[in-house]
Each structure stands twice: as C-alpha cells, then as structure tokens.
Write a structure and sequence with these properties.
Length: 419
C-alpha cells in the first residue's frame, strides 16, 4: 500500500543565492556535512576518507552524461529544441550510439507546437565543416503523453555518439538559469564516468578527485561500480498533493557479477556506502530484482522491472509469507548469471524511496543537498529514519552557508541500522 505522505511536509525555503550556477575551482574544495547517527558536524570534502566507516565497500555510479540537447530550425525560422531521453531503435544504448546513418530516440521537444510534421535540420551547422557535412535531420514519428519519438538521420558515416559530441550540448539543470558553457563538458561529469546514457549527472560524484579516491584506497576501503542512466525525470517536480499520486520515471541500470559477489561478501565485512541517490536506487532495486528471480527460480526467470510501490506492498515477501533474505536474493541473481553465462544484468527500476521504506543494502550515503518537495528529499528523509531529522540536517546546512543542488556542497549520512 502506498504511504500516505503529503509533499508539502517536505518543503523548506531555499534562497536563489544558495544555488551556485558554477562549480568551485577545485572539485574537492566543497564543504562536507557529516551526519552520524543523529550527530551533525562539518568538514571539507577533501577529508571525506577520514570519516568513512572502516572496512566499507563504496559504490559509485559510472554513468556518463551525453550532450543530449540538440537545436534544429524549420524553414520558417522557428527554433526547435530536441532533448534526447533514451534510444528506441536500436533500444540498446551502446548499439544506438554506434549506428552510423539513422536511429530513433524518445525525446522531449521544446516549441513542439511549431513542428507538426516534416523534416527539420540542425541549426547553425554551416560554420563548422564537419558539422555541416553531417546534414543532421530530425523527423517526428510519434507523439506520446509526455514525449516524442524522433528519427535522426545523418551522413558521413560517423557514429551517433560522434554526432552528439559535434552537435549537442550538455543538459545542465534548468535551475542553474544559464546556458551550457565549455567548462560544463568537464565539470558536469564525474572523473570515473564510463558508459554513455545519462541526461543528468549523478552529482554526488562531481566532488571526487584522484587524490580523494587514492586516499579512499589507502584507507583499505574497497570500491565498486553500478551504472544507472539518469533520466530527465530527475528534474520532474512532484505536482500532486500526496506522493502516492506521483508517477515515478523509469530508468535502466546495469550491474555486474563482480558487484553481486562483492555485495554478498560485504555482508560479513562491513558497511556499504552509496555515492549518490542513483547508486542507492540501483542497489536497493537489486534486492527486489533478486526476489523476483528467487520466486520464479533462476532457470525460468527473465530480468524485469522493479515497480514504483513494490517495497510497500501489504503482502508478505516470499512464498508462504516467509521473507526472501538479501542473501537469497543476490544468490538467485548470481545463479541466473551462471546459468546464462552472463557477466552483467540489465534491468529497469521505478522504485521510489520514501519514509517507511526499509533499507536492505545501503548503510551510508554521500549526497548533495536536494530541492524542496522532491522525491530525492523524500529519499533522504527515509534514509535518516523519517520524522524531522532531514529538517535538522537541512537547517544546519542553511545556517552554515552550505551550497545546494548540482554544483553545491556535499554530505556524508550514516544511518542507524538498528532503527
């Protein structure tokens, strides 16, 4: 059953001047709020390794932001912005990025009322010979409820990934209130980004530098990675009075056999630290994905999607009312991979984490400060144990000159597992 939560109870006053439009000169120069089982303090992010729990496993999201904003112009002169969300044909990200003539994507279209049909061409390609030679065009194939299906065609035989690099812009968040600049290509991307697909950065990772990562290794903390491609839904405000009426967006994620083995091993070693809310959603979704596999048996199962409200269902977990353990869940996924000779699993999740959620995997969280009345703020509240604890954290941040949102400061939150 969906929790009865009013979104207005997760509001706070965020002045515009607390939202930096630009990052600090040094990635690890940000402030770090520390919340350790109810105690709040602060330090500098560069000293994050000093505050991490001993024997921890730290999980990073290695997704890479793509230059997903493209600007086209009709013959009438009307400007059309196309914001690429996810591939449709081919549906696989890597295959779509590798196509050399045509591909189809689900998109958001700006000024769509001016574009009923027909081909439109890329805007301002004539000043760059390589861009002009592409002759990039877009054709609207289908209008959906909140998106458009668009076919892109181009010439010269370069892959679509190169087309985006040449023609697209990094989609920085709208609340920065400025256009994308050259420095965003580097700073709105984590150092460890590997796999293209996100239209928004997993911003908790923007603070990490090589020295910080080396200090984490030197402390004996192991590192692991997941890949969840962040969708435009991350910017979608909650417009309903109750969170139960909010439609959570679906995002694809990939996990490896090694990660599953590391998570199982970690149960007897120490805590698991997620870097960013995207890593939290991926890791926590793994339990439910494995539960599906366990209940179907690995031999008969096909990777599916984790539903938005699945964690809050009234029915007991597992068959005969017996809960599926985390170990059973992860072992089932590993057995499925062994049977099918796979090194990774690809699935999707709509999971929403709100107060009342029971965490199965994540013990600590590195994260930035989030927008009022957002699903991410609800996740923070749930992680801290509900009640008004999130208000104490955010009040401290506001009173002590912390910077908020994507290019803002960071926090390390350690929850009490016994609550």
């Amino acid at each position: 059953m969906e929790p009865l939560i009013r979104i207005e109870n997760f509001n706070y006053d965020l002045p515009d001047h607390r939202i930096p439009a630009y990052p600090l000169p040094n990635r690890d120069g940000s402030k770090l709020l520390l919340y350790n089982k109810g105690v709040i303090s602060e330090d500098a992010f560069v000293r994050l390794p000093d505050h991490l729990p001993d024997h921890a496993l730290m999980v990073f999201n290695n997704t890479k932001v793509v230059p997903a904003r493209l600007f086209f112009q009709k013959e009438t002169g009307a400007m059309i912005e196309i914001f690429c969300l996810e591939p449709v044909t081919p549906a696989d990200y890597n295959i779509s990025f590798a196509t050399t003539q045509s591909c189809v994507w689900r998109t958001v279209v700006g000024n769509a009322k001016k574009w009923k049909n027909g081909l439109i061409r890329l805007y301002s390609g004539e000043n760059d010979k390589e861009v002009a030679a592409l002759n990039l065009q877009a054709e609207m194939l289908e209008r959906e409820a909140n998106s458009f299906v668009i076919r892109f065609t181009w010439e010269t035989g370069v892959p679509f990934s190169r087309v985006l690099e040449l023609c697209g812009q990094i989609p920085i968040p709208p609340y920065l209130n400025r256009e994308t600049e050259a420095m965003d290509l580097e700073r709105y991307q984590t150092l460890y980004a590997k796999f293209r697909g996100s239209v928004a950065a997993p911003t908790a990772g923007l603070h990490f530098t090589e020295p910080v990562l080396q200090a984490i290794d030197a402390k004996g903390i192991r590192r692991a990675e997941v890949c969840l491609h962040v969708g435009a839904g991350t910017f979608m405000p909650v417009k309903s009075e109750y969170i139960a009426d909010h439609q959570m967006h679906s995002e694809p994620f990939v996990v490896t056999r090694k990660l599953l083995e590391d998570l199982l091993k970690q149960q007897s070693i120490g805590p698991i630290v997620a870097v960013g809310t995207t890593s939290v959603r991926t890791l926590e979704s793994l339990y439910f994905l494995g539960k599906h596999c366990f209940e179907a048996t690995p031999q008969a199962w096909v990777p599916d999607s984790v539903a938005q409200w699945e964690p809050y269902q009234d029915a007991p977990d597992g068959e005969n009312g017996v809960e599926v353990t985390l170990e059973e869940s992860l072992h089932s996924l590993l057995e499925y991979m062994k049977i099918n000779n796979l090194d990774e699993i690809t699935a999707r999740t709509r999971i929403i984490i709100v107060p009342g959620y029971r965490f199965r995997i994540v013990d600590a969280l590195v994260t930035n400060f989030h927008q009022p009345q957002s699903t991410l703020l609800l996740l923070i509240s749930a992680f801290l144990g509900g009640g008004d604890r999130w208000k104490s954290v955010y009040a401290y941040a506001l009173e002590n000159d912390f910077r908020f949102l994507s290019y803002g400061d960071s926090s390390l939150l350690i929850r009490d597992k016994h609550e």
